[in-house]
Amino acid sequence: MMARRLVGYAAILAIGVLAPFLFPNYQSQMAELWLFIVFALTWDLLGGQMGYNSFGNVVFIGVGMYVCALTQVGLFYSIADYNAAKGGGQTVFTFDTVQYLEGLAVGLPLAAVSAGIVAAILGSAVLGMRGHYFAICTLGLGVAAGQIANGWHWIGAGSGMVVPNAPPGIGDASRFYYYFAFVLAVLAFITVSWLYSTRFGLAINAIRDNEDKAEAMGLPTTRIKVTAWVVSALFLGVAGGILGNLKRFIDPIEVAFAGASFGVWMVLMVILGGKGTLWGPVIGAIVFQFLKEFFWTYLLGWQRVALGAMIVLIVVFFPQGILGFLRQRFPERFGHRIDPAIGRRAGEAAE
Q1: Which of 79, 80, 135, 275 is 20 to 30 Å apart from 158, CA to CA?
Q2: Where are the chain's structural domains?
Q3: Residue 334 pLDDT more than 80?
Q4: What phi and psi, each to the nearest 5 degrees, are found at residue 98?
């Protein structure tokens, strides 16, 4: 079993490394897929494993996106002048290969740290809430963050911010950021897989099952919840920095703090694949990205209607997700043994 699993992981890594060369026309879409996997894995850390449905994770994406872009610019130019000129005007804002790589080398770690600090501050304030109160509060955080960015002229306000152009020295920009997204997704998967195997994983599951009993047993539930949110934010901050460079233009509402798209999609991907599982978010992200690209290609103008219909179908017919459905249909494939006598009696009762 272990050998088979290692072969599977090696095959996935090989596909990830070779994919840009096998499908060069879809590098941006594949890079977005890896980022979607990060979105789904980090959302499920709270929403699936801990039972706290957050609609505010998009805040960390936006914070990371802006911090990375502002760092890339601010290391070499005045941010106010750059955004006032929208990357052009009388002053030529150019970045050579060394400057560009330095900006990323500083910007992406700062994006992670900044998002983590924001998560620690917000988590300490709102993670005392439970249920729908927490969900509504986090939804408001995403909307508020978008409006603040929309009115902040130093970062471009409603006119948005142009991300520095990638110099010719880095080669194909889409391929360059594809590998950033790929490595981030692999690290996110390894991290959450490791966390679920530790006492921390047992603690967040205990909070999901019965938080009051977990507190009575001595678990510092608030600290555990904040820690889980900070872990999610660290990855989302880097993902936001990568996504901003992929999109090339940061709109505060439609890209950075896009609650209506990224904020909803990350929840949908987890539900589609299966909440509270390791591979469910990955499967859900892959299926969702393929369906989204299909809708955008063949149903242009109706793509959002199709996505809305898909959301309804998933919630109604696949409440446990693809992985949950497969586990119910083929339990033995997932390591669950069924006593033949029990199975026979269950079948007779169903008849």
Answers
A1: 135
A2: 28-336
A3: no
A4: -65, -45
Pull the structure tokens for residue 120: 């620690």
Q: Say how far residue 324 (Cα) sits from the centre of its chain.
A: 21
Evaluate if pTM is beyond 0.85: yes
Residue 350 has pLDDT above 70, yes or no: no
| Helices and strands (DSSP H and E) totals, the chain | 15, 2
CA atoms within 13 A on the CB side of 345: 4
The span from the CA of 18 to the CA of 124, in Å, is 43
Give which of 122, 82, 92, 81 is closest to 236, Cα–Cα.
122
Supply angle C-alpha 62, 65, 68, rounded to 5: 145
**CB-based contacts of 341, cutoff 8 Å, min separation 6:** none
SS3 179: helix
Which candidate, 55, 157, 65, places its Cα nearest to that of 108? 65
Find the helix or strand (DSSP H, E) in which 162 lies.
strand 161-162
Most distant CA pair in the chain, distance: 82
Per the listing, tokens 């026979």 go with 344
Q: At 56, phi and psi to the nearest 5? A: -105, 5
Quote the tokens at residue 235: 């990855």
DSSP string, 91-150: S-----HHHHHHHHHHHHHHHHHHHHHHHHHHHHHHTT--HHHHHHHHHHHHHHHHHHHH
pLDDT the model gives residue 179: 95
Tokens of 125: 């304030």
271: left (phi over 0), alpha (psi -120 to 50) or beta: alpha
| Single-letter amino acid code for the residue at 348 | E
Q: Report which of 70, 77, 68 is spatially closest to residue 96, judged by C-alpha positions.
A: 77
Residue located via tokens 């959301």: 311
Q: What is the pLDDT of residue 90?
A: 55
The owner of tokens 């904040």 is: 226
| DSSP character at residue 278 | S
What whole-number distance in Å separates Cα of residue 265 and Cα of residue 296? Answer: 15
Phi-psi region of 246 (alpha: psi -120 to 50; beta: other; left: phi over 0): alpha
Do 65 and 112 contact (CB within 8 A), yes or no? no
